[in-house]
Amino acid sequence: MHHQFASNKDVSSRGSRNEETLQPTVYLSKLPDKFPEGSHVFVVDPMLATGGTIVVAIDLIKERGVDNRQIKVICAVAAPPALTKLSEKFPRLHVWKRRRRGLRLQGRG
To answer: Which stretches make up the Phosphoribosyltransferase domain (predicted)?
Structure first.
């Protein structure tokens, strides 16, 4: 089995929160129009609070042909509202949360 990895210079997306509406917005996306079939995508976000920004990021990835089971979210801190939102919107999504030593599978939708 051959694995190909893309660096963050090749594939990335950046977002922020609109100060008036408080909704997440994407201001830079270098994502491909379509990911190759069978691609696994890691989404790294240090802190999941409400889940709004990560939902936008995952929606962008899913629009490009990646299934929930192929997306892995890695974070340092995950608040319950974010985990609930991810679980409800993206069944079978894996969320890995940092703990004292290593990573722990936090939740699966």
So the answer is: 17-96
Task: Assess if residue 4 is contained within a domain.
Answer: no
Output the tens digit of pLDDT for each of the chain's 109 residues.
444 445 444 555 556 666 776 677 676 677 888 999 888 899 988 889 889 889 989 999 999 999 999 999 999 989 999 999 999 999 989 898 877 665 555 554 4
Give the count of beta carbons closer than 10 Å to the beta carbon of residue 41. 19
- Under 8 Å between Cβ of 68 and 91: yes
Residue 7 domain-assigned? no
**CATH number, domain containing residue 89:** 3.40.50.2020
